[in-house]
Amino acid sequence: MILKEKDAYSGVDGRDTDTRGFYGHKQEQDVAFHLRREFGEHDQIHIINDLRIEHKGERAQIDHLVIHPFGFIIIESKSIVGEVKVNAEGEWSRSYQGNWRGMPSPIRQADLQLKLLRQLLRDNVEKFLVKLIGIQTQVGGRDWKTLCAVSSSAILHRDRMPKKVSNQVLKTEFLANKIRDMVGFTSFAPAFIKVKPRFSMQELQDIGDFLLAHTESARPAQEDVTSSVHAVQEAPAAPYGSPSAKPGEEAPTDSASAFQSTSTACPEVQDTPDDNLVACKSCGEAEHLVGLYGQYGYYVKCKGCRTNTSMKQPCPACEWKSVKVNKDGPTYTATCRKCEHRYLVFRQDNEG
């Protein structure tokens, strides 16, 4: 299930003039496409793209986060054209147009992101994990893994790569199979029962809601997408489609193009029906509700049975479950993260 799609690319200060940022975004978009194609409707594998976290003064932007019953996988995307080598010390180098140079280790970068994510979740565990016999459960004993997905056109020299690094680095097209192997899933069913702590379906949902609320609060007021992606982004010197692009430079893959066309094909539509889309999940009441905001976003409280119901209702246009809710006065609208369809969810009456 896709909880958050890849953010749109806006270049530097809203201008599509940054070549490195453009190709970095394209690679992340390609990874997001593969994740959506394979796990878009999977109820036990949840994906958050472009996750921003902030904890105790430290910040991190995670390209792609996989949340599954047994733990977490952070995926760092790298747009690399040419060859890649990693020596015994874990130091990375890459070639471009015959020239070799060093580059920061994306595995090290992902490890630092994973460390901050673990600290954030440990310090807020009571917000998404249940208590058993009055004792608060923890996130210890879970799987905490990192991967690096590089461009499919890159050449990986695995013969001299440390085995651990080689197991963490792969081309984008093989990412879905790698995730299934790491989680222990074959197709869409568990291949075996793991003897280790696992998150319930409700806990998976609550973890996702907590992180989505956190990434919205961590979003800077004036966001520079390019600088927040990576300090050093590996990319060609000329943008895709430019007449100056040289032979051997990276061209967009079919999957990336398909993802881009899917996300922009549906224009934004505003629905304004008379009836609210949301209703109490317990008693079905649709009239006597009060709109409120909590740690997991907007919700309604039923005046009758006092049950809370999330306003994140599936998109009526494409039935996608990942939506973003906004409030404008008494009106609450949702925007589908897949087709960008915008629709009314709830309108507070005068008595609310």
Description:
- With 352 residues, the chain is an alpha/beta fold.
- The chain folds into two domains: 2-265, no CATH class; 270-347, no CATH class.
- 25% of the residues lie in helices and 29% in strands.
- The strands form six sheets. Strands 1-2-3-4-10-12 form a six-stranded mixed β-sheet, with helices on both faces.
- Helix 1 (19-39) links the parallel strand 1 and strand 2 (46-55).
- Helix 1 crosses helix 7.
- The model is unreliable at 13-17, 186-192 and 221-274 (pLDDT under 50).
Topology (elements, then pairings):
Blueprint: E1 2-4, H1 19-39, E2 46-55, E3 58-68, E4 71-78, E5 83-86, E6 92-96, E7 99-103, H2 106-122, E8 131-132, E9 135-136, E10 143-150, E11 155-156, H3 163-168, E12 169-171, H4 175-183, E13 185-186, E14 189-190, H5 201-217, H6 225-229, H7 254-265, E15 270-271, E16 289-294, E17 297-302, E18 308-310, E19 323-328, E20 331-336, E21 342-347
Mean pLDDT: 77
Poorly predicted ranges (pLDDT <50, ≥5 residues)?
13-17, 186-192, 221-274
DSSP strand (E) fraction? 25-35%
Morphology call: elongated
How many separate structural domains?
2
Helix percent reads 10-25%
Main sheet attributes: strand count, strand direction, barrel closure: 6 strands, mixed
* Strand elements, count: 21
